[in-house]
Structure formats: structure tokens, C-alpha cells
Amino acid sequence: MGIPVTLLEDDNVHEAIAEVESRNRSNGDGAEEPGRENWHLVKDIPSQLGLRADSAWSAMKDRKSAGGAFWALWLDDGSRVCVVDAHGRVRETSVSFDAKITSLDIRNENTAVFLLETGICGTWDLNSGHTRFCDGVQQFDAHHRTEAFVWAGQQQARNSGRGLTHVTLSTARARYAITTSYSNSAVWADVRVLREPVCAAMGDDGDLLATSDGQGVDIHHLSRGTQTSVVGLALAENERVWRLGIKPDCQTVIIATTYRLLSHKLGSGGVSLICEAREGSCFDIDSEGGILVERRHLYGTHIAYYTFCEDSLCWSSVGYTDVRAQFGIRKIDKMIAMGEDKICVLSELGTWTVLSVVRR
């Protein structure tokens, strides 16, 4: 036996619903579709980089310089090196070393810095092809190294010179060297590492270093010699950290796990959820500190954009573009934010596409 119910329609209901939907559109709360009008992508003109389609691009290592001014891609034997600037101009070249290239970064349009698997680092003149090795660099056993970086920034060195910062991580310790452009000699120091690192990231300032053993994340300040651990990760049983990133202001560390994308603001007591993301998802940090994330589902592939709101202290999606439906990009192998409003995408067919950001 049921209870009779009479439904009375309130004339204000529809207005209330419209108000809530409008508020969600402006805040980007949860749903990605309402925020699309605030941020989306269009194909650039010309839409192709000056790079021929080649499946070998996916196998190349890559590194974005500070602020996205340059992007370096290379094969570890040096037989193919490509440098792309923020305007989409491309330079292809090659270099020969006695050891494989572990890391490469671009200092300016004429100069690159490199790190070999033996631990040797130096500078490379892209015009003349001349290479110069740093003095005093201690070689290390490549079999015990889990990650290595070379950074071409303008950090103030200990002897008042300005040069590059070279960081290597081993199973027992992290070592870094500041090499000035004047003396070209390396000054080494050790950083205490409590856990064996499996991934790491270095800030644009050459001072902030984040490392992870897959289960926790440690933050190092090289100049101060300090280390702190990120609390509140609360990883699931089969969840692990597989990649780290650092925002341009060097105040926030991005943590990619097998299930989620998280952020940790230095000095805070925990982490914030950016979005769900599978292991291997492409993501990048643009010059504004926003996060670009590749998302794939059964019927499409899209790039979503997330920003952090200081008022609500949480991340929200402000827009997305279905690149499969609009540009025919079914799978993204590499994705990088170049400059302020350009995104370079490498598809599974080895084809490059340049997309422009439209903000409202």
C-alpha cells in the first residue's frame, strides 16, 4: 500500500537550477564540459613543425628548458638531435661522444649542455659543433645510477660565477656539481637520500630537487642542504609514484602516480588532487603553472587544462579539447607546452601538430 504524493512545481526551481549551472561553468567544478568555453585548443597555422613524420620520434628522449623557451629531443648515441624553440623553429643536428647521452638541455639558441652516462658533463656549441668537457667531474658507475639531469640555468654559483648545475642520483646518494662558465670546473657536494630514487625532477632554479622511491616523495634544497618528506600521499595498495614535475615558480611539486595526478605545495601539510590519470599519461606544466593532461577514453582522446584556485585551495578543470574528434589525433606519444600559448603534440603516427591555446 503506497502513500499518495502530490508534486507541486515551484516557479523558482528552474531559476535556481540555472544559477547553479552558471556557477559551475564559471568555477569549472568537476565537470569538464561546462569549462570548455574558458580554455580550448585550435590548430595552429602552420599546424606542422618543420619535422618530417617519423615513428622514431617516440623513442627519442626529450627535455624542455626553463619556461618552455626550447625543447630538445635526442637519440642517446647523438646521431640525431633536434632543438625546437618557442616559435616552432627547428634545428636538427648530431654529435659524437664515446658514451651515450643521458641528459641534454638548451642554454640558448647557440649552446647546449650535456650529461653522458659516465657522469661527464659539458657544453656543446650548436653552430661549430665544438664540445667542451667540465673539469673535475667525477665519473660514476652507470649501473648504479637511477636518474641523472643536467640543467642549463643561471643559478648564482658559490664562487659568484654563473653556470650550469649538474645533478646525478645514485642508489646511495645524490650528487650535484655547480660548474661556472668562467672556470669550467665542477664543485661537488653530496645530498643525503633516505630512499633509493626511481624518478626525480629538478626545478628551474637549479636548487629544488624532488625524488621518489615510488612510495614516498622527498624534497631537497641543494643550496641549504635540507630535505623534507611529503606527507599525506596515502597511496593505495598497488599505487606507486612513476613521475615527478615542478612548477615554474618552484613552489609546487607535481606527483604522478599510477592512478592520480597530485600536487604538493612546499610548506603545506599534504597533497591536493588534480585529476585521475593512468600511468604513462602525458602531462606538462605551462608557463602560467597550469597543468595540461592527456585523457583517453573509449570514444576519444582529449587534452584537459587544470588550474589551482588559491581561494578554494583546490584544482579545477577550466577547459578541454577532444583532439581525436577535431584534429584526428588518436593517441598522444609526447606533449609539451611551448611558450605561453603553444602546445606541440606527437601522435602515434610520428606526426607533429602545433595547437594554439584560446583563453576567455
From TrEMBL:
InterPro entries reported for this sequence: Quino_amine_DH_bsu
Protein name, per record: LAMI_0G10440g1_1
Origin organism lineage: Eukaryota, Fungi, Dikarya, Ascomycota, Saccharomycotina
